[in-house]
Amino acid sequence: MSKKKALGRGLSALLSDSDTEEKLEVDNIPVGPTVVAAEQQPTTPTSPANGISEIQIEHIEVNPFQPRSHFDEDALLELAESIRVHGIIQPITVRRLAHNQYQLISGERRFQASKLAGLTSIPAYIRSADDQQMLEMALIENIQRENLNAIEIALSYQRLLSECNLKQDELGERVGKNRTTVTNYLRLLKLPPDIQIAVRDNKLSMGQARAIISVENPEQQLYIFKKTLSEDLSVRKVEELVREISAEKATTKVETTTASNPASREISQLQSRLSSHFGTRIVVKSDGKRGEIKIPFLSVEDLNRILDILKVQGG
């Protein structure tokens, strides 16, 4: 990234000698002579010639701009055990607030794991950064982590747009993504909370969620979502279901315009009951005298399931 595109004032200078530290956090992989064994941790802050200082853990506060809200507990315990055996291999990065008072910029997993490991001090790079730079660095650093879930990325994008006053094109340049990719992530935040939670918890993939977004009605989104989980639908099957529902949109719209008619309300209620009973969207059409009931299915297995409900044996 050129200086012209740098985040905030002098971001590249702030991270020039620690731009790879977060990439190494998960595996605690040694890089260079920065190993500080747990049993060799000094009890008072020092400032070695290589720019890394030993800071008392009790003097460090967490980053209030940290966009990540969830850390895997088992992975954190594994990292703590690694630190207990090998010590801190890659320093964290902090900013100085006052004498013996620091705030974390990056490396919260290492920081939390070090406390679990019983360390009293930790090696750190000390940087100068204002609140705006802190927010930009924390958000973009986390966005670029491979194990960040789609909702966390979307929330980080939204914060960069709203709190850092970036436009989508500028945001795309910051994170190395095209505008379409940024837009797809942001659209996830328009989904109902239950679906967002499923994406966050990796119960629903980004592809499945993107297909569901194509349906505007929240009730239909939740219907597709529940069906996707209960039947373990693939992305392709979810897309087929979405196309099917979209094809029925015109019919549904006509029914809605006549909803004031008692007969139409009864048809609509019947349609909802049947859809719930069969676990698929049923379409009921009637002109008041005659009509039809349409029961769609997605596969042979789905057809057999419907036939079982109807107590009809397949051929």
UniProtKB/TrEMBL annotation:
<feature type="domain" description="ParB-like N-terminal">
    <location>
        <begin position="53"/>
        <end position="143"/>
    </location>
</feature>
<dbReference type="InterPro" id="IPR057240">
    <property type="entry name" value="ParB_dimer_C"/>
</dbReference>
<comment type="similarity">
    <text>Belongs to the ParB family.</text>
</comment>
<dbReference type="Pfam" id="PF02195">
    <property type="entry name" value="ParB_N"/>
</dbReference>
<dbReference type="InterPro" id="IPR041468">
    <property type="entry name" value="HTH_ParB/Spo0J"/>
</dbReference>
<dbReference type="GO" id="GO:0005694">
    <property type="term" value="C:chromosome"/>
</dbReference>
<keyword id="KW-0238">DNA-binding</keyword>
<dbReference type="Pfam" id="PF17762">
    <property type="entry name" value="HTH_ParB"/>
</dbReference>
<dbReference type="InterPro" id="IPR004437">
    <property type="entry name" value="ParB/RepB/Spo0J"/>
</dbReference>
<dbReference type="InterPro" id="IPR036086">
    <property type="entry name" value="ParB/Sulfiredoxin_sf"/>
</dbReference>
<keyword id="KW-0159">Chromosome partition</keyword>
<dbReference type="GO" id="GO:0007059">
    <property type="term" value="P:chromosome segregation"/>
</dbReference>
<protein>
    <submittedName>
        <fullName>Chromosome partitioning protein ParB</fullName>
    </submittedName>
</protein>
<dbReference type="GO" id="GO:0003677">
    <property type="term" value="F:DNA binding"/>
</dbReference>
<dbReference type="InterPro" id="IPR003115">
    <property type="entry name" value="ParB_N"/>
</dbReference>
<dbReference type="GO" id="GO:0045881">
    <property type="term" value="P:positive regulation of sporulation resulting in formation of a cellular spore"/>
</dbReference>
<dbReference type="Pfam" id="PF23552">
    <property type="entry name" value="ParB_C"/>
</dbReference>
<dbReference type="InterPro" id="IPR050336">
    <property type="entry name" value="Chromosome_partition/occlusion"/>
</dbReference>
